[in-house]
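REQUEST FORM: STRUCTURE PREDICTION
Request ID: SP-0412
Submitted by: Lab K.M.
Chain count: 1
Length (residues): 99
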Amino acid sequence: MKIEFDFLGNTIPTQLCLKVDDTKVFCKRLTESFGYEFEIFHCDEYALQIVKEIVSVMESQSYDHGSEWQHTNIEIISKDREVYEPCVVRAYFRIKDSY
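STATUS: Completed
RESULT:
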């Protein structure tokens, strides 16, 4: 999969926007736990596949920067959604060897 950063015009973004194989993915950090929420306007199984790929990259990059992130759970939050609503997927992490 090809992952690119995508900025929303000239405004200061309050969340990150990625483009994965021409599908926009909005990403923001969760405030209540160590994790990220992803919004994708696509079917649920494809959305889960995209998030797993992004999580893999995040884990790899964290190892390069001295702390090793490991995902603990990836879950689809918005299973019963309308067609025009984004699919919401959350990924939770922990830092390896931390308490």
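NOTES: Residues 3-95 form one domain.
Reviewed by: T.R.
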